Amino acid sequence: MTKALFITTFKTNLTALVQGYLTRKYKRGFPLNKQCSQCNKHIKGSIHREEEIHPNFFLVIYKSDNVEENKGHTTLCFTPISTSIKMNDKYYCYECSKNLCHNSNECPICLEHIENSISTKCSHNFCLKCIIHWIKIDNKDNVLFSAVCPVCKETI
Q1: Nearest Cα to 58, choosing from 97, 22, 31, 99?
Q2: Taking the model in full, what pTM does it have?
């Protein structure tokens, strides 16, 4: 590829990226002031993006007014962001949204009813057989009891 062709292709792709990014129908900058439907925590800030994942199920990416609640940064402008879920016009904070679709009697590894239940120090429940298998797979350094929780990635 010649230098001129590369520059033309790059400009075309960059223009398409910027135009696509700026013309999407996101509710950017709208104020967000809701309460979590489970724990009543305030979800407050300005919406960066609201993406429909499934009918009546939205991922809401927003800049929180509370700096400690921001979980990361956007890729283009590095704005601090947090996430919540909107389902049937009910909002769920980041913490509650992680457990929204999880049945407490279901092992998050095998997705079946928990047999010989064991809890990690981060309070996640697993089948004994599943968590032992997970630890064997996750423990790449062969260090005794060195693994992370498959749900929250905290050291177990």
Answers
A1: 97
A2: 0.50
